[in-house]
Amino acid sequence: MRRIQFHIRKTRVEIVPLVSSPVGIPIVQASLVLNDFAPYGVELVSNGRLDEGTAVRLRIRSPIPIEISGRIAFCRAQPSGQWVISDFPVTHRVGIQFQPSSEEEKQAIAQYCQEVAHLIMPGAPHSQAA
């Protein structure tokens, strides 16, 4: 039986609400475990609260840059007693449902998933993008 290496990779991201307020657009800092990334959405931890249903852009700069359109599916307060992998104070768990604005963005998300999977499990077989 072939053994597959598995790595947990996390990265810092920005959640940009697509609505402005009198003080401008508040960018929420968040931490994403890339292992949790899926073609339909992702759950992450953040330092701010976002209203359910809010349209957002998720900005990922590392390890592979991408921006994805989505909406806040849920936002729950993070219990202070739970341990979270993050380099900043975490106050909320946030679910983002991806809502690609074009077929190109949908394909880019699928390609990103494959590239991230290769980074996380370097020896695993992966399907080719169609």
Keywords:
globular, 1 helix, six-stranded antiparallel beta barrel, single chain, alpha+beta, Thrombin, subunit H, 130 residues
Task: Give your account of this protein's structure.
This protein is an alpha+beta fold and 130 residues long. It has one domain (10-120): predicted glycosyltransferase like domains (Thrombin, subunit H, Beta Barrel). Helix content is 14%, strand content 35%. It contains one helix and six strands; from the N terminus they run E-E-E-E-E-E-H. The chain has one helix at residues 103-120, and strands spanning 10-17, 28-33, 41-46, 55-60, 66-77, 92-98. A six-stranded antiparallel beta barrel has the order 1-2-3-6-5-4. The longest helix is centred in the last third of the chain and has 18 residues, at 103-120. The mean pLDDT is 81.
How many discrete structural domains?
1
Major β-sheet profile? 6 strands, antiparallel, barrel
Strand content: 25-35%
CATH topology: Thrombin, subunit H
Structural class: alpha+beta
Distance between the termini: 29 Å
Rg from Cα: 15 Å
Helix/strand order: EEEEEEH
| Fraction of residues in H or I helices | 10-25%
CATH level 1 name: Mainly Beta
What is the strand tally? Answer: 6
The named CATH superfamily: predicted glycosyltransferase like domains
